[in-house]
Amino acid sequence: MDDDRYLRQTPYSDPGRLDTRGLPREPRRLAAMVRGLIIHRGEGGLLGYTIPEERLHHDAESRYVTEILRILRERGDGPLTEERAPEGRFVGTCRDFSLLLCSLLRATGTPARLRCGFATYLADGWYEDHWVTEYRACDGRWRLADAQVHAGYDVPFDPMDVERDAFLVAGDAWRACRAGRADPMDFGLSGVDRLRGLWFVWGNVVRDLAAVNGVELLPWDGWGPEFLGRAPLTADDLRAADAVAASGPRRLTGHARLSVPAEITSYSPYLGDRVVRLRAPSSPPA
Predict the structure, then answer these.
(1) Which superkingdom is the protein from (predicted)?
(2) Engineering a disulfide at 231: which of 136, 210, 225, 270 sits with its beta carbon 3.0 to 4.6 angstroms away?
(3) What residue spans define the domains of the chain?
């Protein structure tokens, strides 16, 4: 069954030797647990905490759950099920909340996968670059969960069942832009004029495709100037994204730009461009 595929850990979500016997099994409780372990690097002020610059710059470069857990162990020896003070948390991004929740869901028997796309509830009138976790609920329906959303957010929906028009997976955003139902210049990072547009949506289509196929990249990973809008998208790039958006990101294709190479470039906002060799999976995706 396809669900079995999303019970298996990837090199990115694998929690290593984490003892899962004391963890809750209910997705809502796991999401609350994740919120108590991670602080978004843009939200220190909400908790009255000044994030140290080193943590601000380096924590979110941890692309594997084993690294996130190592950092958490270094900052406190209490159980992961206990909410931590800000100074004891991992300083991450939406992708880190989503990846850790995905890891714990898989480890406790719930099929889950990362989704890359755009949220309408983080900035007014804007489609914000964002990541969430998609999991199979007990009723058999696949739901979107946003583990980053806490009591300080004013959202008109259950964060464990985010509405599909509140979070657009990247393929849906791509189709809306290509059909003229949405303006590509309304998609990207709010407040950063150079990080918006159709090229940005295209990059998220590629990252969402990779994530669903077991390669859960960092939000700023890529392998070519198109990923930063430094080169125009080709007709072949457009056609390939059209095909993925139409069919859904079920399997990797042979298109060179859509297949994740062994070495990628991390276009890190703080550390600059770096070539990174990714961990190889123990077995190919099913």
Answers:
(1) Bacteria
(2) 225
(3) 2-277
